[in-house]
Design goal:
168 residues, alpha+beta, Immunoglobulin-like, 6-stranded mixed beta sheet, 12 strands
């Protein structure tokens, strides 16, 4: 019985590692998930995130970001590694996030947004590329960055949501 339990535990662990893998062959969908909670004078808590955060793909692969959050819009915005916020102060004072949001909403938040920003060529390949993701929706784009590239991305609305795309 102990051997059976040990084997079952090992198989479950191997399965969990395989499901969590972000190799080019197994993961082309990124879930946008989590919640936010606000209690005045007591707490702000946000678990919004990209899952997986790091992704490894082959150049030319299409990746889909699918939102589980039904009330929050998001962006998938490629930024320079040095512009990725690393502290609470940087999250709440994010100049690159403000620039991205101004480009998506050039006429203010009550007017139709620009859903795709293409700073480089077609697809996601350069700093400044950004996709707008509607609440509960999905958005896809082709990763066109050269093999050997590493794209850093974040949600300009929720800058603690961060990910990387390593291109092979």
């Amino acid at each position: 019985m102990r051997r059976f339990l040990a084997l079952a535990s090992l198989l479950a662990l191997v399965g969990a590692v395989m499901v969590g893998s972000t190799s080019a062959s197994s993961s082309r969908t990124v879930r946008v998930t989590g919640t936010e909670q606000f209690v005045p004078n007591a707490k702000i808590m946000a678990t919004l995130r990209f899952a997986p955060g790091p992704l490894t793909v082959t150049s030319g692969v299409t990746v889909t970001w699918a939102s589980d959050t039904l009330t929050e819009p998001h962006t998938i915005s490629v930024v320079a590694a040095g512009d990725v916020p690393t502290s609470i102060d940087q999250i709440f004072n994010c100049p690159v996030c403000n620039a991205i949001l101004a480009a998506h909403f050039p006429n203010g938040f009550n007017n139709p947004p620009v859903p795709v920003l293409n700073a480089g060529g077609a697809g996601l390949d350069a700093v400044g590329d950004s996709l707008l993701l509607a609440p509960g929706g999905s958005v896809s784009d082709t990763i066109t960055a050269a093999p050997g590239s590493k794209l850093h991305y974040l949600c300009a609305i929720h800058p603690w949501m961060q990910g990387t795309i390593t291109v092979h």
